[in-house]
Amino acid sequence: MTTTQPPSQMPGFEVDRAALAHLADAQVNVELDTGDMILNMGPQHPATHGTLRLVVRLDGERVIAADPVIGYMHRGYEKLTEFRTYPQVTTLINRIDWLSSFANEVPFVHAAERLMGIEAPDRARYVRTILTELSRIATIYLFLGEMGLQVGALTPAFWGFRDREHVLNLIEGATGGRFHPNFNRIGGLKDDLPWGWVADCRAAMDRILTGCDDFEKVLVGNEIFEARTRGVGIIPAELGAAYGVSGANLRASGIDWDLRRDGQPYLAYPELDIKVWTHADGDSFARYWVRLQETRESARMVLQLLERLPSGPVMAKVPRIIKVPEGECWVETENPLGQMGYYVVSKGATGPFRVKIRSASFSNVSILPWLLRGVYVPDVVTILGSLYFILGDIDR
Amino acid sequence: MGLVEKGVLGRKPLKPVTWLLNYSRKYSLWMFQWGLACCAIEMGAALASPRFDMMRLGVIPFPASPRQADLVVISGTVTDKMAPAIKRLYEQMPDPKYVISMGSCANCGGPYWDSYSVTKGVDQIIPVDIYIPGCPPRPEALLDAIVMLQERIQNEGIGNDELASRWRGEPVEVA
Predict the structure, then answer these.
(1) Which residue of B has its CA nearest to A166?
(2) Which of B36, B40, B135 is opposite residue A180, by nearest beta carbon?
(3) Which residues contact B71 (CB under 8 A, 6 or more apart)?
(4) Any idea what the Cα angle at residue A268 is, between residues A264 and A272, rounded to 5°?
(5) Quick check: A161 and B138 CB within 8 A?
(6) Which of A101, A338, B70, B158 could potentially form a cystine with A246 if both were Cys, beta carbons 3.0 to 4.6 Å apart?
(7) Whole-angstrom Cα distance, residue A247 to residue A235?
């Protein structure tokens, strides 16, 4: 059974009850008409990927209004950064989007470097790019598996966790941490890559590319998967852009926009041959498909980077105590979940005066109240899964 | 443990009976996953990934509700907004119940020790049996905690007095 999303009728979309009546097979008397039911999903619910709480108003099996309640994971990052020095802040912001920790560090370190007028050496730039792409793979791989789980397929979830370990091993080998590397320093990297890492990385990327083929074989084209995801949760392109949806969610709506290619030039991306994948449909399936292609693209990008990896130092000359001169700086990057940006205000001290964090998931879930109107309850789960947010990234 | 509460086993149950009951209990731990933050992913890796595979230790991670769970793993940052929900769901779990606090955040607040919205340690709201340090701990650390908990359960008394002493906070010696 495919459900259809009502056409875009923002704002003030109301459910046409007369139109819904024909959905029931049997004719229902007026006395049997059901009242609205309030269903509370979360804050602890497996389908919400953490601690998102959804208050859903139901008419039978259909959602007429959904209200996300966020803040269960609010840890006060923006305030905490005011009480930390610059090197300490990178430890903290690792944990915003905990799946792609390394990618979180990059924009902040860039902002500090730009304010200080330091340029990281070429090798550091390349290794940063490699590790960012690896963390992208580690993030999206979990999604590729979990999306199967949302529609009742267990096997892809196990595959996702299994192959993800290859990438985590690489990150651990280079940085010492599976999850939170904290490997970036202002002006470069903590260490160089260990001996033999490049060969390991090549082998792991081959493994990842094979794994992507497996996902494609199992899920894309699978009748059940397509029935549950095609035509479900369609985000129209203009509306998505208006809500601030970014990353693969927006590219799945047909907008060809990737900050790695189109934004401020950062890391080694301008020197790379990047293909940006888009899909015209904008439904859950499109979001899955775009992310699948992006994982492949990331793996290919890592292979490209390994080919061109320059030699040299990994750390620029930086004063022992880092003091950032007065100024303001906005750096945005394309993170696995979408556009992530830091607005750093410095007053010349050892720590930032104010940091505004723009995280992707917060804007991505802001479309939920619109998106969930009129869908069936089981589709809520697939839509939540396909939007792919991290709670730390929403609440910060 | 209805048998225990009704006093069928008496004040001092026979040693083999105790052993058998504890043995059965420790290898069928129904684990309620409370995945909150980063540690939840490592918990997921411990449960779902073939590299770690926690189910081989006799942990069943999919109870439908806390009312069927023996063990809850609090993995991640507990915020003040989340704390009432944790307490309520903990209270719904049937006795005897065990709590593993996974990661620095759940232990003591971790990197958010000076945050205005974070509960500094889940032990402020519920009693914790085993703390796992790390930010986040590796999946192996969680496996180790499970093994420690199983040792503890094996050596626990099942009479009412022993259970009561457990709740008074007296230490249980692990062999």
Answers:
(1) B51
(2) B135
(3) B29, B30, B31, B32, B59, B97, B98, B99, B100, B149
(4) 100
(5) no
(6) A338
(7) 13
Helix (H) or strand (E) holding B131: strand B130-132
A96-105: buried (b, 16+ CB within 10 Å) or exposed (e) per residue?
bbbbbbbbbb
Residue A234: C-alpha distances to residues A31, A254, A290 (Å): 34, 11, 14
Strand, coil or helix: what is B72?
strand
Interface of B with A (CB under 8 A): 34-38, 40-42, 44-45, 48-51, 77, 79, 81-82, 85, 89, 111-112, 114-118, 135-136, 138
Measured CA to CA, the distance from residue B49 to residue B61 in angstroms comes to 13
Strand partners, B64: none
Under the phi-then-psi rule, with left for phi > 0, alpha for psi from -120 to 50, and beta for the rest, what region is B118?
Answer: beta
Sheet of A53-59: strand order equals A37-41, A53-59, A62-69
Residue A27 has pLDDT above 80, yes or no: no
Tally of residues, chain B: 175
Q: What is the pTM of this model?
A: 0.83
pLDDT tens per residue across span B65-79: 888 888 888 888 888
Minimal C-alpha gap between B113 and chain A (Å): 10
Q: Which of B37, B114, B116 comes nearest A392 by C-beta? A: B37
Domains, in order of start, for chain A: 90-367 (1.10.645.10)
Query: What whole-number distance in Å separates Cα of residue A68 and Cα of residue A53?
Result: 6
Cβ-nearest to B49 among A43, A91, A165: A165
b/e sequence A325-348, b meaning 16+ C-beta within 10 Å: eeeebebbbbbbbbbbbbbbbbee
CB contact under 8 A, B50 and A83: no
Contacts of A44 in chain B (CB under 8 A): 34, 85, 89
CA B17 – CA B165 distance, rounded (Å): 20
CB contact under 8 A, A158 and B49: yes
Inspect the interface and report whether the beta carbons of B50 and A142 lie closer than 8 Å: no
Run of H or E including B90: helix B83-92
Please write the tens of the pLDDT for every residue from A75-126.
888 889 988 888 888 888 888 888 888 888 899 998 988 888 888 898 999 9
